[in-house]
Amino acid sequence: MGSNMSLKQWLPLVGLTFSAFVFNTSEFMPIGLLTDIASDLEISEARAGMLISVYAWVVMLLSLPLMLLVYKMEYRKLLLCTLALFIISHVLSAVSTGYAFLMASRIGVACSHAVFWSIASPLAVRIVPEEHRSLALSMIVTGTSIAMIVGLPLGRIIGLHIGWRMAFLSIAIAAFIIFVYLTAVFPKVPSRNTFSLRRLPVLLKNRILIGIYFLALVMATAHYTGYSYIEPFLEQVAGLKESWITFTLVAFGASGILGSILFSRYYDRFPYKFIGTVTVGVAVSLMLLYVSSLNHYTVILLCVCWGMFITAFNVVFQAEIIKHTSKDTTAIAMSVFSGIYNMGIGCGALFGGAVCTYLSFSEIGYVGGILAIAASVYCIKRLLRLLKKDTVRL
Questions:
Q1: Is 60 exceeded by the pLDDT of residue 394?
Q2: Cβ 134 vs Cβ 267: under 8 Å
Q3: Which residues of 83-100 are buried (b: 16+ CB within 10 A; e: fewer)?
Q4: DSSP label at 187?
């Protein structure tokens, strides 16, 4: 598949893949360390969960404004500056002495996240030949999946044995190594700075983009209502031991690679069937979460299916945004997508916290599942029809 790609094209793509790995490891690390952070800072798990919500809301609010500020910057320089902010913020997380300090450092990470995920996918498809776009996107998603396989559980293991602060410091060290690597291999990528702020309202009138954004908001809220509290759910409801919880988180992430492989193999051939299948798959996984927890093996299998579907969901709609926008508007459209998706992450973490506080951990799958069913109905009845009819690129 990559036979026409030179080593010069592969090396920066590998660097972007590892960047996606550290960014996603950092974003979701508090999920695996939630109990440890809450205990150490003497706060409730729901309050610790606000680290996830506030992070996501900062990304939501700043993705578009930050991209409008920096979109004229040459992309290699922008990527390296983003990584530098990411590294500094993680060092601050590692030395934080209280909840407020930790929250402030996480906001710094969120700002770097907002820019990185606005440019990662557009950059990936720009540094490879046209025919390898699906491969490039799959590589970025693979980095995300590896974060769940290795990064999130490894962060949890480090946190359990030598403290959650060392987990954040480890991310800073890994990011610094990637920074040095990208400095050596990443080519200059001029910004397509023809985008005008006056075009933003026109871009946001694109019916397909609005449909994708709405679906992403609802589905992200649904997913993170359950996933934000998956660690205490597996411990308190499913009754898994710590080693099995770590294994389940690994399995969840590993299945994301399968979702990425399925995307690269079937999306181009059966785009609409693929979109419908992965959307419904997330809803079914959430609805069956509690039922599956009655047996250790079924809850692990359920998490494997869930991870596969949500990963495929994420990459397929990034591909659709790239497909339905012009080259000079893709980064801006992707920044809006990132912001809205993170709004869903924040809402999901908040909803999940409310469910855990006022109902019980066992209900998070049902609450998330109801939202995911609504999203699936909208996707099948409305959005898929728009995608089939509309081929406009704005």
A1: no
A2: yes
A3: bebbbbbbbbbbebeebe
A4: P
* Count of other CB atoms within 10 angstroms of residue 184: 9
Cβ proximity of 339 and 64 under 8 Å:
yes
Of 377, 195, 127, 384, residue with least CA distance to 271: 384
In angstroms, the CA 317 to CA 323 distance is 9
Amino acid identity of residue 54, one-letter, is: V
Is residue 52 a contact partner of residue 349, using CB atoms and an 8 Å limit? yes
By CB atoms closer than 10 A (0-12, 13-18, 19+), residue 135 is middle
Return d(Cα 39, Cα 275) in angstroms, integer. 41
CB 375 within 8 A of CB 275: no
Q: What is the DSSP string of 55-98?
A: HHHHHHHHHHHHHHHHTTS-HHHHHHHHHHHHHHHHHHHHT--S
Residue among 118, 136, 170, 82 at smallest CA distance from 336:
118
The amino acid at 1: M
Higher pLDDT, residue 88 or 68: 88
- Of 44-58, 111-125, 168-182, least confident by mean pLDDT is 44-58
CA 144 – CA 14 distance, rounded (Å):
13
299-343: pLDDT as tens digits: 999 999 999 999 889 888 888 887 877 766 777 787 788 788 878
Q: pLDDT (tens digit, 9 = 90+) per residue, 109-165?
A: 999 988 898 888 778 877 777 667 777 777 777 777 677 667 666 777 777 788 788
Residue 15: closest CA among 161, 189, 258: 189
> Side chain identity at 180, as an amino acid letter?
V
**Structural contact between residues 211 and 275, judged by C-beta atoms closer than 8 angstroms:** no
CA distance 133 to 354: 40
The Cα–Cα gap between 117 and 213 comes to 15
CA angle 288, 54, 152 (to 5 degrees): 55
Tokens representing 268 are 């181009």
- Look at 1 and 180; give whichever has higher pLDDT: 180
The closest of 72, 61, 134 to 315, measured between CA atoms, is: 134
